[in-house]
Write the structure tokens for this entry.
Amino acid sequence: MSPSEDDLTFVPEHFSGRARLFPLPNLVLFPHVIQPLHVFERRYVEMFLDAVEDDRLIAMSLLEPGWESDYDGRPPLAPVACLGRVITWQAQGSSRYNLLLLGMQRVKIVRELPPDRSFREAEVELLADCYPPETETLRLALHTKLLETFQRLMPNLKDAEELFSQLSLENVTLGTLTDVISYALDLGLPLKQGLLSEACVDRRATMLISHLDQTKSEPSAVGAGAFPPGFSEN
């Protein structure tokens, strides 16, 4: 199934506030990026099928430390998740699916709903990017610094010139740039979750720049041929 233009847009006014939860221990999804997923656990296959018959929305959430003792149950989740839309999928034999999930918007988990389904659901609150007017004059410098750092860390990236051009100030917001870089670099799950949880764009960008500046050796970045990343399995 190929994505349509409607699949790539999100209208907050049309969102019900109810989200299917797809918790994983090793993945933080961000808005504006596409994550390949391989779904095969029964509860997540049922979640996927329910989504594609409805609004195609699934919220990727990070499991909190200690999840191993209750993985098949309802272990604690990080309070902020990323709402994504299934934009394309393909069946892989019996009850297995490859799909592409496009990150749409941050959401705060308000409360989990009763376990009436095989998969988890929650009432969530949309978290829009916040651009404080008092720090507007700093935004150009933050954008420039982040893009230059990203170029330095990924010198061998395939089609790098085209990608960096698309991420220029003229083409994307600072929020989008920060999310793309946060997703692409191997920053460690706690930092990625912290970046996802920060709705203030200027603070989010400053947090990322501070981490990269403090790293004396190059952080492990996603190399050429691995960006976009490969499929993540549930």
Q: What stands out?
A: Strands lie at 18-24, 34-39, 57-62, 80-91, 97-112, 120-127, 232-233. The longest strand covers residues 97-112. The chain has six helices and seven strands. The CA atoms of residues 5 and 92 lie 25 Å apart.
